[in-house]
């Protein structure tokens, strides 16, 4: 399981438990990010102090979501929509951008408590609004379960049964959503999406 063009200040609230549910991927921040403007807008010193208190913009990037970000196996450089948005925001603010890498949404969220980033590209989840202010979403993607070819589980509703075990990345958007909505199935948590997939295979989990 695993995310428009305007980014503005507001808190979003959206989730629905259907056979496939939508996860809003949003930028945690407090300024309007216009799409690729030629001339950067005038930014007040108060906004700069809030968004880039160290003089550079530290952007948390979740490399556990390949839909929006990937890292080159050779150079280690990041690329993708999340990286492009981070660099464009820095350009409009007129400050250098430092990409702060995380392997999962859960680890990225935890990085905030340690003061590890100033803004981030991160999936919306209601549980995170206690500590994060979200902009409007810039994109959505559908997500559903992965099961074995011979599995009797054919719909999302089928999965929520007693005895069904689901591999999930700990404290990621999927984990938070399923923790809130599942009534019978059991979540088996791993440290990252990649680790969750390996756990699903190694322990022959159901989804």
Descriptive report:
The N and C termini lie close together (9 Å). The chain has two domains: 21-142, Periplasmic binding protein-like II (D-Maltodextrin-Binding Protein, domain 2, 3-Layer(aba) Sandwich); 144-202, no CATH class. The strands form three sheets. Strands 5-2-6-1-7 form a five-stranded mixed beta sheet. Strands 3-4 form a two-stranded antiparallel ribbon. Residues 1-37 have low confidence and may be disordered. With 207 residues, it is of the alpha/beta class. It is elongated. Strand 8, helix 5 and strand 9 form a beta-alpha-beta unit. It has six helices and nine strands, in the order βαβββαβαββαβαβα.
Shape descriptor: elongated
CATH class annotation of the largest domain: Alpha Beta
* Number of contiguous helices: 6
Number of strands: 9
Q: List the domain count as a whole number.
A: 2
CATH domain fold name of the largest domain? D-Maltodextrin-Binding Protein, domain 2
User: What fraction strand?
Assistant: 15-25%
CATH homologous superfamily of the largest domain - what is it?
A: Periplasmic binding protein-like II
Structural Rg = 18 Å
CATH A-level architecture of the largest domain: 3-Layer(aba) Sandwich
In the predicted model, the low-confidence regions spanning at least 5 consecutive residues are: 1-37
Largest sheet: 5 strands, mixed
Strand order of the largest sheet: 5-2-6-1-7
| Average pLDDT score | 80
Counting helices, strands and paired strands, the structural category is: alpha/beta
Name the helicity range: 25-40%
Distance between the termini: 9 Å
Oligomeric state of the chains in view: single chain
Order of helices and strands: EHEEEHEHEEHEHEH
